[in-house]
Amino acid sequence: MANQLISEMGLPKSIANVFAARNIRTAKDALSLTEFDLMELVDMGLTEVTSVLVHISERVSPPHQTARSLLQQRIQNEQLAGHLPTGLKGLDEALFGGIPFGVITELVGPAGIGKTQFCLKLSLLASLPTRHGGLDAQVIYIDVESKFSSKRLIEIGAQSFPEIFHMSGMAQEMAGRILVLRPASLAEFTESLQQIKILLLERRVKLLVIDSMAALTSGELEHGASKINPLGWHISFLKSVAELSRIPIVVTNQVKSQSSDEAWRYNFQEPLGVLCAVGTRRQDLEDTSKYDSHLIAALGIHWAHAVTIRLILETISGERFIKVAKSPMSPALAFPFSITSSGISLLNDDGIEVVGQEISTIHCHGHSEIIHSDTLQFHRQ
Amino acid sequence: MEVGRLPISAALKGKLVSAGYTSLSLLSSLSPSHLARDLNISENEALDILKHAPHDGQVDTSSVHHIINGAQTAWDMLHEEELLTRITTSSVDIDNILGGGISCRDVTEIGGVPGIGKTQLGIQLAVNVQLPIHCGGLGGKAIYIDTEGSFMVERVLQIAEACSNDMSATNTVSQDVHAGKVGMQPRDFLENILYFRVCSYTEQIALINYLDKFISEHRDVKIVIIDSITFHFRQDFDMALRTRLLGGMALKLMKLAKKFCLAVVLLNQVTTKYAEGSFQLTLALGDSWSHACTNRIILYWNGNERYAYIDKSPSLRSASAPYAVTAKGIRNSVSNCKRIKLM
């Protein structure tokens, strides 16, 4: 609505003409100026300018609805009450049904932890017929890192849903619903996003997976504290697409080690200064060195604000966990999981409650155990 | 030049100046028809100019003895501030450091890292404002402006249910008084939250302009929550333009807060800032924005607990208090007994 033409807003003809003559054509043009700038430009008095602005503002303002009608709308219009079940019972319960429609869900974790596996499974689930708990729709899978494996996809399908995949032709049909895009650069990615917007809005596609978002910027974000976030546009675009089309968007994010000059942690203690003596900070730093490796999500805090649900996949002493790190509704829970031939499966459905900040840290032990045991064997030989 | 300050169009100003009317005192003793003839404009336009020109011609600072229109003595203000109503946050500790809750007639900014509970606090306030006065609310409605799309209506229902349960629990204790209007249903809470979804910064500016009219028609609105003020202003923006637009918005919001005696709560994100050789976290939108709000509360992690810290307030002491986000909404931190730190 921001680009609504001023000439179409039912203002008196004379006023509309003056605005057009000064090249103030859209609501955006007019509202980006202060009242005094406008007075100068269109040569009108303050009262007139204010009343014109009030008029334009009223036209451009989005309509309101009560939270109650919003809720009713959701309940009526959406299959599965607006969630795509992940098939992992405990996680689905924690997320009130699964991956929610209309928002961005993020998977963060170190390499090889199972992010792609999770995405493959979700793609399959979305393509399944409704009677098997799927969305019976197409899926767009943007494979930035070239990790998508169709062989593995079929394997997961055959293992998890044998009754469907053993029917002749079904494997082909299910896999045929998953469209894989492989953009080579950020520019190409941008282009394909714009193309698929229509598809998404037509609601033929009901799941969008981007694996991974971080890989897109890895080549371009290196030069220091660059002011402009190269993904700024993409973030708001994805959010609005998710919401307008009411589909779930699942995005993976890599991790990076925290470098020493970025020694802040997500706890807001540093800028407050007063709150914590220098000692606390030192302690923090020591803590950092105690971890096998201290990791943070690769895309920065701007991105972290934009995702509605963040799931962290991590390993603690050899065991894999999936944690609900950010969610507007869910309690802070961690679930141990393992990767099997049928994809990700939870080892227990109850979850472990996590206190405080622990929920948003990412653990990953190095390969010391393997390498260590290898050398032991070497000695024995 | 004094006429430069008149709220009239540039062309009229030009005509005034070229006809020699450079100071306002020259306009004071003129009749509209005289001015119209001098400037070669219509009598209506002339009348308009004269309406804006001050009547006694004495606009110098020497007239401070007169009671200036719109001014208020500090004594009156004190009296008014004592009557100020506040909206509870549902965490007694946070209410304590805030002097009872989020205050009306003020703009309060709340910022913090992702996942700390900004949206939660916003939703909690939208529900709490509807509580009857004896429960710490204002019996009003809430406007929730969602710029991010992070408003989860299921979560609102959850918080509203908890709130309604709490109310009926207290009502059974003091049954005798409120037997007539027993508890609000969760659905009622949802009905009183007016939700706007804003998809661009233009819409955000437009909506804030329009709020004045909207609230005049919905007088029972007692809180406006913007979640978040930042989102649309973080995408590639010319910094000068951004500062100007944000400044204008902040002024309008303050006016709203005063005019309708309602609380304005702005949620803000954090960003990294490069200062003194290291990256630090700070609230987004830059330094000039940080002057725009009356109160600023920062939510942060301290060890394993969430804390709220009053970063800026003209009337409250700097203090921090722990809180918790539970299934019921914002509550007191469980492990806490007496840990409010005053600085």
UniProtKB/TrEMBL annotation, chain A:
Keywords: ATP-binding, DNA damage, DNA recombination, DNA repair, DNA-binding, Nucleotide-binding, Nucleus. GO terms for cellular component: Rad51B-Rad51C-Rad51D-XRCC2 complex; replication fork. The keyword ATP-binding applies. The keyword Nucleus applies. Residues 80-255 form the RecA family profile domain. InterPro entries: AAA+_ATPase (IPR003593), DNA_recomb/repair_RecA-like (IPR016467), HHH_XRCC3_RAD51B (IPR058766), P-loop_NTPase (IPR027417), Rad51_C (IPR013632), RAD51B (IPR030548), RecA_ATP-bd (IPR020588). One of its GO terms (molecular function) is ATP binding. GO terms for biological process: double-strand break repair via homologous recombination. It is found in: Nucleus. Belongs to the RecA family. RAD51 subfamily. This is DNA repair protein RAD51 homolog 2 isoform X1. The gene is LOC115752255.
TrEMBL record, chain B:
SUPFAM superfamilies: P-loop containing nucleoside triphosphate hydrolases (SSF52540). GO terms for biological process: meiotic DNA recombinase assembly; reciprocal meiotic recombination. It holds the Pfam family Rad51. Residues 83-270 form the RecA family profile domain. GO terms for molecular function: ATP binding; ATP-dependent DNA damage sensor activity; crossover junction DNA endonuclease activity; four-way junction DNA binding. Keywords: ATP-binding, DNA damage, DNA recombination, DNA repair, DNA-binding, Nucleotide-binding, Nucleus. It comes from the Eukaryota. PROSITE patterns: RECA_2. GO terms for cellular component: Rad51B-Rad51C-Rad51D-XRCC2 complex; Rad51C-XRCC3 complex; replication fork. It is found in: Nucleus. Involved in the homologous recombination repair (HRR) pathway of double-stranded DNA breaks arising during DNA replication or induced by DNA-damaging agents. Belongs to the RecA family. RAD51 subfamily. This is DNA repair protein RAD51 homolog 3. The lineage of its organism: Eukaryota, Viridiplantae, Streptophyta, Embryophyta, Tracheophyta. The gene is LOC115744131.
